[in-house]
Amino acid sequence: MKKNIRFYFAFYLAKISVIALKVIKRDATQFPGKLAITLCPNFLEQIGKPKTIIAVTGTNGKTTVCNMIEDCLKENGYDFIDNQLGSNTNSGIASTFIKGANLKGNQKKDMAVFEIDERSSIRVYPYVKPTYLICTNLFRDSLMRNAHTEFISNMLSTNIPKETKLILNGDDLIVSNLAPENKRVYFGIDRLSTDTDKCENIARDIIVCPKCNSKLEYDFVRYNHIGRAHCSKCDFKSPVIDYEVTNLDLENKKMTIKNKEELEEYDLINNNIINVYNMLATITVLKEIGLTKEQINPVLKKQKIVDTRYSKQEVNGIEVITQLSKGMNPIACSRAFDYVRKESGNKAVFVLLDDLHEAASGSENIAWHYDTDYEFLKDDSIKQILTAGARYLDTKVRFQMADIDMNKVVCQRDEHSLVEKLELENIDKVFILHDLYSIELKNEIKNRVIKKIEDMKGKE
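Request: output the structure for the sequence above.
Response:
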């Protein structure tokens, strides 16, 4: 599209704002883009775009998948722009374009990798047309943000550009039916020994066939609505998978992917099924743009999940594990609880999931607790549960409803004295499950737990 005077006025002011923010040592992540769009509403349409745009959307896993893609591209000599340090909305993407553009408003690099918030699709995709769009999954999320999956999936399908090739999670019946007219490839994981015939979770976001409203019959369930299913009344069913994990060895951290009768083995980052899906999404899009296993696997093999999302440290024979669990996101919390119960050994678990960010913005909604599988914490291997925070009594009620033995629960208002109540006798692992907005508290709790373990060893 031809650039007009209004565009250049907005563009140069935004460029100046980038410089000004650097001078005062502030990150130019969102303000330049917000300024440009305010001054020129179709700014995203006019600014120059790279030839290849890889975009990632979905409820969970966007950031992790983007980080993996970017690391693989970097290691293989690709030069690109990204919004890794910025917002995943239209203003953040505009800021990235502004910083990467020359004085004519054209991009200096031929490739971009963008994390894009699902709800921002209506403001992004009319102007930014990804070459490839990955959708990791679609689940119910915070009621304050993403409402119901049907609302979000319809928004995506309506706005995804027709020319975009989709990289879709074929084990997610909501995702696999996005924008049905677009070219697509599917990734997925074949049936595992841990899969079931019936759903164990409270939340299940697709139960009836979207074509004829008959009840779906699941061939297997992995968690929530993730699995393979078909309708007995019409032809609706899970798609044929293009990139399928046919052998998953979590113990040895290996997986075999089948694509067009070709089998390739990759190393896993860890044994969490969520990260298997994240790796599979990454490998699929990288293979689609032409990278080989030899270019991908060595990079992924040395990947580490960022400490703000997952960390593990052994202290005097006890593992201290922190894991992001995203308060107000029932699926993310349920996956964290499920991971804890399935880990070996005796465990103590800190549950620090106060939705402080949402509370600060005026939300009093605690409905997500009742979509979250607290029942997974009712496991004999979990010897103690410790929780604290502004809404500790709401959490206590949910523990009681899950029929958890309250004799092994510590529930109090003050987070900072919580570690004093930790009992380490016969404990092999201490899990600290925390919210996105409680990173500082997580670090404080972790440091205190480590000191307590060290002090205990010194007294022996």
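Residues 54 and 113 are 5 Å apart (CA to CA).
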